[in-house]
Amino acid sequence: MVLGSGVYRIGSSVEFDCCAVGCIKELRRLGKSTIMVNYNPETVSTDYDECDRLYFDEISFETVMEIYELEQPEGVILSMGGQLPNNIAIPLHHQKVRILGSPPEMIDNAENRYKFSRLLDTIGVQQPQWKE
User: Which of 31, 50, 44, 32 shows the shortest CA–CA distance to 5?
Assistant: First the structure.
C-alpha cells in the first residue's frame, strides 16, 4: 500500500506524485498487488490504471488505518508521499502497521525540528539559530 501526497499546496510539488507512481510501477513489476491511497484528482497516481486498487480518500491516520485493516497489505510505503504520510509515521507504527522503507523513527527524527537540530548538534553540523 502506497500513500500519495494528497492535495498539492504551495511548497508541495509534483515530485511526490512521480515518486508514488514510480513505486507502484516497481511493485507491479515485482509481481506485487498494489494499493494507492491519494485524493488529488490532478495526479497520475489517482489514475485507476496505475494500481490494482485505488482509494481516493484523505491521507489521515484514521483513513489509512481503516484501509490497512480492510486490505491487510504486506505493508505501507509512506516515504513517497511527503509531509502528510510522514506526519502519521509514528502513530501508524504504534498501531503495529508494517512500514516499508524508511523506519518511522528515522522519519520522525528528520521531520521533528527539535530532534533534527539536536542530531546536527551531536555530529557537529552548524545550523542557523531557530526557536521552537
Answer: 44
